[in-house]
Amino acid sequence: MTGQAAPDLDGYELSGKHGVWIIAEPDGGPVVAAFYTVKGSPGWWRGHSRGRVKQVFAPRAEPPAVAARFLRP
User: What residues contact 25, with CB distance under 8 A and at least 6 apart?
Assistant: First the structure.
């Protein structure tokens, strides 16, 4: 997925590959979050969202679902 609006992301765009994902405002706007898979720890994702470091456990989740969790307050 590259630069596509994803459901449940309030219009933000999700792009990424190789386990690293970026959530940004549409049309090249500012990045609001970034996250990545944790090598050697299946199901764990780490990243930064709206000024905070986050870690999420989401086994078998696809990146758009993980992105939605990173955007939650």
Answer: 11, 12, 13, 32
Strand-pairing partners, residue 53, are 48
DSSP3 helix / strand / coil % (the chain, rounded to 5): 10, 40, 45
- φ, ψ of residue 71 to 5 degrees: the values are -80, -15
CA gap 43, 57 in Å, rounded? 5
Q: What is the pTM of this model?
A: 0.81
The answer to whether 47 touches 70, Cβ cutoff 8 Å, is yes
CA distances from 22 to 10, 27, 35 (A): 15, 13, 7
**For residue 49, which of 36, 34, 65, 64 has the smallest C-alpha distance?**
34
CA distances from 38 to 10, 24, 27, 70 (A): 26, 21, 29, 15
Question: Does residue 27 have a pLDDT over 80?
Answer: yes
